[in-house]
Amino acid sequence: MGCFDSVWVKCPNCGIENDVQSKSGECLQENYDLDNCPDDVLANVNRHSPCHCECGVMYEVDVLNRKTIML
User: Fold this and answer.
1) 61 near 9, Cβ under 8 Å?
2) Residues forming a β-bridge with 62
3) Does residue 68 contact residue 62 with C-beta atoms inside 8 Å?
4) CA 20, CA 27: separation in Å to the nearest integer?
5) What per-residue string of b and e applies to 43-64 under the rule 16 or more CB within 10 Å gives b?
6) How many helices (H) and strands (E) does the chain have?
């Protein structure tokens, strides 16, 4: 198992937080949200996109605007 950082993002439909993994940056097993996530970590945040929320919505992170968007 490799190292990664987790970025906690909220579903744009229901607001439930889900974690997505990024393998860019230093990968120190850190936890971030979209507001405090370093740019280098955020660059790889959609590597397992789309996210599937338990409410049934699929979404990904709009990296430039640092927000989640429904697909």
Assistant:
1) yes
2) 67
3) yes
4) 13
5) ebbbeeeebebeeebebbbeee
6) 1, 6
Of 8, 26, 25, the residue nearest 17 (C-alpha) = 8
* DSSP letter, residue 40: H
Would you say 55 and 13 are in contact if contact means Cβ atoms under 8 Å apart?
yes
Per-residue pLDDT reduced to its tens digit, 2-15: 799 999 999 999 99
Cis check: omega of the bond before 50, within 30 degrees of 0: yes
* Whole-number Cα distances in Å, 69 to 3, 12, 24, 42, 47: 26, 6, 21, 15, 15
Q: For residue range 17-27, what is the model confidence (pLDDT) as tens digits?
A: 999 999 998 88
- Close Cβ partners of 15 (under 8 Å, ≥ 6 residues apart): none
